[in-house]
Design a protein that fits this description.
Its main location: membrane. It comes from Clostridium cadaveris. Belongs to the ATPase A chain family. This protein has one domain. With 240 residues, the chain is mainly α. Strand 1 (20-26) and strand 2 form a beta hairpin. It starts with a helix and ends with a helix. The protein contains nine helices and two strands. 73% of the residues lie in helices and 5% in strands. A two-stranded antiparallel ribbon has the order 1-2.
């Protein structure tokens, strides 16, 4: 019974984070500004600032700052080459951006904020972005005629299944990301609720191992899974 109450409280908190802080209209269309959206804006501003800082005054002989960013770019390039092949180097910026952005969102639990990815709307938007990139790249590579012809391969009777497979990709991506991040957030909330019964001082050091696992480790794993599935689907669908 107590567990059911805790689950309901956590679900309600997740719904509250999706509720608008304020709403304005553009024409007749209402635009809601939520806490999750504000956190994402802050993350974007910080990442853009970091990109400008690390890309400023690049030199032929790299200093420590440039070495860090070149190491990261080299790692992402190797990841793309290994999983997609040499012909997909143009996806290095996309993969690198998604990896850093997802990590930043998943790690917000370390500073006492609920990760935006524990909201299904945010997770679904990430899945839709990948879906649109895949379809757009496939059309660009194969042409519109061959793109639609691919839905009927290897046999025309496979058309409904192939359509369902394409549509389910953003759903499966988002549900996996949302489910794991929501579970991690819920477990951390239960841990803090339990430690609060002991005393506020118990909340200072004891949750650190839990944060390392559920925020850092699990957040990193979910980012890697999202990237791997995205890269594999880009390659497979573009070469169908």
């Amino acid at each position: 019974m107590e567990l059911e109450i805790l689950i309901r409280k956590e679900v309600n908190k997740g719904m509250e984070s999706a509720e608008p802080i304020f709403t304005f209209t553009v024409g007749s269309i209402p635009i809601d500004i939520t806490i999750n959206l504000v956190i994402q804006w802050i993350i974007m501003i910080l990442l853009i600032g970091a990109a400008l800082f690390f890309s400023k005054n690049l030199k032929e002989v790299p200093d420590k700052k440039q070495t860090i960013i070149e190491s990261f770019v080299g790692f992402i390039r190797g990841l793309v080459d290994e999983n997609m092949g040499d012909g997909y180097k143009t996806f290095v910026p996309f993969v690198g951006t998604i990896s850093v952005y997802l990590l930043a969102m998943n790690f917000t639990g370390l500073i006492g904020l609920k990760p935006p990815t524990q909201s299904y709307g945010v997770a679904l938007s990430m899945g839709i972005i990948t879906f649109l990139v895949i379809q757009g790249y496939t059309i660009k590579k194969l042409g519109l005629l061959h793109y639609f012809a691919g839905y009927g391969k290897p046999f025309a009777v496979m058309l409904p299944l192939n359509l369902l497979e394409r549509v389910m990709l953003p759903v499966s991506l988002s549900l996996r990301l949302f489910g794991n991040m929501f579970a991690a957030t819920y477990i951390m909330s239960m841990a803090y609720s339990s430690l609060d019964k002991i005393g506020w001082i118990a909340q200072i050091g004891l949750p650190i191992p839990l944060h390392l696992y559920f925020d850092v480790f699990d957040g990193t794993i979910q980012m890697i899974i999202f990237l791997m599935i995205s890269m594999i689907n880009i390659k497979v669908i573009a070469e169908h």
